[in-house]
Amino acid sequence: MRTIIEPFRIKTVEPIGMSTLPEREEALRRVHWNLFLLRATEITIDLLTDSGTGAMSSRQWAALMEGDESYAGARSWERFEAAVKDIYGFRHVIPTHQGRAAERILAQTMIRPGQVVISNTHFDTTRANVEAAGATAIDIPIPEARQPRVEHPFKGNMDTDALEALIAEHGREKIALVLLTITNNSGGGQPVSLANVRKVSEICRSHGIPFYLDACRFAENAWFIKTREEGQQDRAPIDIAREVFSYADGCTMSAKKDAIVNIGGFLCTNDDDLARRMRDLLILTEGFPTYGGLAGRDLEAIAVGLYEGLEEDYLRYRIASTKYVADRLHEAGVPVLRPPGGHAVFIDAAAMLPHVPPLQFPGQAVACELYRVGGIRACEIGSVMFASRDPETGEERPAPLELVRLAIPRRVYTQSHMDYVIEAAAEVLANREKLRGMKITYQAPFLRHFTARFEPL
Description:
16 strands; Aspartate Aminotransferase, domain 1; Aspartate Aminotransferase, domain 2
């Protein structure tokens, strides 16, 4: 095997911050050990998220100049709608300024208080929008998804036996919808198989339950289907994606991921009446239905990026480069979730810091130490983000996994940048016995991880 190279050349460069250890230690104190609150200039390698942090191509930048900024019925809207319908195939396309706006509109038009929403794993903003609508978010990934070092090609799959049981328990009327996340971000960026999509669709349709996809990383998921699922190897990613969408009633999409743009998203549905109500809410909160809070230039960039994100050379490089980081960390002894997913590498903080209890947030401790050591910003995906409360006692319950996500922006960093990250993580591992847990000194009622304040114990 030859080295997998970047299928692009670098045309523009941007300087990055190079800080000293004392400067980073002072920055951690200033932001109360919450990495979201750091200044971008204080970061050397930023792996906080892959959302909106990718590098657009020359074709996308050229498309920006075609942006039609007409308030209604712009040419850019027509090109955007045509691209989405060509790939996704749904009847109605509703643009939004980003994915969580699509989630909010979906929640406010489809969910009634007291209902439940079932997913393989809800992400943070999805769960928050479900709960804000008065519903309960239930996660039913397959059992292998809770075992970080178990090898399984599709750990993002939904447990279909559990889905049948929940339908029998709650009844069809109490289930607002089933939402399948591809790839499963909170579950380690793990893919969902085509067979699992089909099976979930069959179950939902047999019971008359709406079936939607959280499609932020649909292209990466299509590549995993192509390379891991029997009988799919000779198919193009775009054709696999089209089949996946054909089994659903609609989707939410953050274009900031697999469309490789800095802002934008959309909501799709095949339900005519629901689409009308969604557009009414869109006008109230986002904008007219042909721009949805986006500039015409943004619509143009998405229309190009949706196809670029499905190119085979790009996807081969994208998945191989993520695997490279995961494999090198594994070889260095850093416990990581296996097999590696598409958009990120997930460090198993519980395994790295077995002496730190889950509700002392080992993931936050590891993330802060990674910044202290190397100026690398990562994201805790554990009990800070996903702890729950016992409905009777109010006692906080830890998340199923304590992870630190190294989300890799698209077309941004080179192999030497990633080698630097690997070296820093190995240094954190070498000093892990010195690390202690953290406590929260302030938290917001929703999505606390964005603004919480911490102190080391």
